[in-house]
Design goal:
- The protein has about 450 residues and is α/β, with parallel strands linked by helices.
- Helix 12 packs across helix 13.
- Strand 16 (about 425-430) and strand 17 form a beta hairpin.
- Strands 1, 2, 3, 4, 5, 14, 15, 16 and 17 form a nine-stranded mixed beta sheet that branches.
- About 35% of the residues lie in helices and about 20% in strands.
């Protein structure tokens, strides 16, 4: 386990290379050279001068940038399969009492399982939005950060929070919300302890009050000030359901985007999860301010929240990525499935030309990098960028004979993952995670699930 950083360059040859560079270059028979944590060469044909390199034969495979997950709730990996036929508000009120029982040990197990699965399905960078912080739960943020380091994935955890309990008109139970000052202190501490702004950072922190119906106006306002003082990004759920729209209209006299705009929650350092129920003005606000969005089509479908106007957001120039969302509202948590559903849902809403397969793959790669402010480091296969790469096998029964390799991976079933490099390090080989033992983690997840459900009664 835990393979070391390779000392010799890695050359992937004879592969179909989808670069996702500005020109959207594709090489039908191409190569990629990785030296340390960086991509040093990309091109068509054969590389030269690498006699001592580790050579990977990419025949029958497609190279893409590693996939970037812009919204998740890792702790939910141990609460999958509950409230499967509920609306969002029903789902939340059912699960809050279960989530109230989590602690650092449970979060560590859940995060390790969820992140290992993401890596196995081609994801090289993942966010997390952790907003349940039990008073006696221990260091839940440190627990998930440790899990990410074990798996070897590039990680952007968001220090979430809730301070609006049911007694004050919010949705979460009072016993799982935090005090405003404790949240701000905890947020500052998380950034000061863990945030790494360097080019090749494996760990960056964002601040992420949960949603308009679970946090106070003061928390949103002060979190925005704090994040900008600390130089980190801001994230929250927004416009996910019509219930939320009605909540904001009744409580604040405006829709969710107008509310967030009034609090300073727009700009290139902000991204919203879901953004399903937006009007033309809302989309214009996001586009003009550079505010990003994490499109989560599978979760939105699972909860019946609606179909986001992803094609309109894309056309308007809004920074747009994909997210698997919390595992309790998307039991599969597969980034290629999100690309698949992004294309299909956009077409179901707006016609067969609403989103191409390459545009949906763009959302999963360079689009996600743009949402996280890392488009100069991640999201495309280009010289000088970090070596986060996925090599997909498309010559097996499920994919052989599909004319277009990009259509094969976006519209076909999940292809076998021949190789996954994160920061130049081999994390997955031939569908096997190398950094943690999958069977051991699966057993730990099952035990943690049983214990947490039993604890909730």
């Amino acid at each position: 386990m835990n393979p070391q950083q390779p000392t010799a360059p890695i050359v992937i040859r004879n592969a179909y290379v989808v670069t996702m560079d500005a020109a959207r270059t594709e090489h039908r028979r191409g190569y990629v050279v990785v030296d340390g944590s960086r991509i040093t060469e990309v091109g068509a044909g054969e590389p030269a001068g690498y006699d001592r390199a580790t050579v990977v034969d990419g025949s029958g495979c497609v190279v893409t940038p590693g996939l970037i997950n812009t919204h998740h709730h890792l702790y939910q990996w141990i609460t999958r399969g509950l409230a499967v036929d509920h609306t969002l508000f029903e789902w939340l009120t059912t699960l809050y009492p279960v989530w109230a029982g989590i602690d650092a040990d449970a979060v560590h197990v859940a995060a390790k399982g969820a992140l290992a699965h993401l890596a196995k399905t081609g994801c090289t960078t993942s966010t997390d939005h952790h907003y349940v912080v039990p008073r006696d739960g221990g260091d839940v943020f440190g627990a998930e950060i440790a899990a990410a380091a074990e798996v070897g994935i590039r990680f952007h955890p968001c220090r979430g929070s809730m301070d609006l309990g049911t007694s004050a008109g919010g949705l979460p139970p009072d016993h799982i919300v935090e005090d405003l000052d404790a949240i701000l202190d905890g947020s500052r501490q998380a950034v000061e302890q863990w945030h790494d702004p360097s080019f090749d950072s494996m760990l960056r922190i964002a601040l992420a009050p949960c949603s308009p119906f679970s946090v106070t106006t003061e928390l949103l306002r002060r979190s925005a000030v704090l994040a900008r003082d600390l130089g980190v990004r801001l994230h929250t759920h927004l416009a996910e359901t019509l219930d939320e729209q009605e909540f904001c209209l009744e409580r604040f006299g405006c829709n969710p985007v107008q509310y967030m705009e009034s609090l300073g929650w727009t700009g290139p350092d902000v991204w919203y999860a879901h953004a399903v129920h937006l009007d033309d003005r809302d989309i214009g606000v996001l586009a003009a301010s550079g505010t990003g969005a994490a499109h989560c089509p599978t979760s939105n479908g699972r909860l019946g929240a609606g179909i986001a106007r992803a094609a309109d957001l894309y056309a308007a120039g809004v920074p747009l990525g994909l997210g698997v969302d919390g595992a309790a509202s998307n039991e599969s948590c597969c980034m290629l499935e999100e690309a698949h559903h992004a294309a299909l849902f956009a077409r179901a809403r707006s016609g067969p030309r609403a989103m191409t397969v390459r545009q949906s793959l763009e959302l999963a790669t360079i689009g996600g990098a743009r949402v996280l402010g890392r488009e100069n480091e991640l999201g495309s296969v280009e010289v000088g960028k970090l070596a986060d790469l996925a090599l997909w096998r498309i010559d097996t029964l499920a994919h052989s004979g599909i004319t277009d390799p990009v259509a094969a991976i976006v519209l076909g079933s999940q292809p076998p993952l021949e190789l996954l490099l994160i920061n130049g390090r081999e994390v997955v080989r031939r569908d096997e995670v190398l950094t943690v033992d999958e069977d051991t983690v699966a057993g730990e997840v099952a035990a943690a699930h049983r214990a947490l459900v039993a604890k909730a009664g």
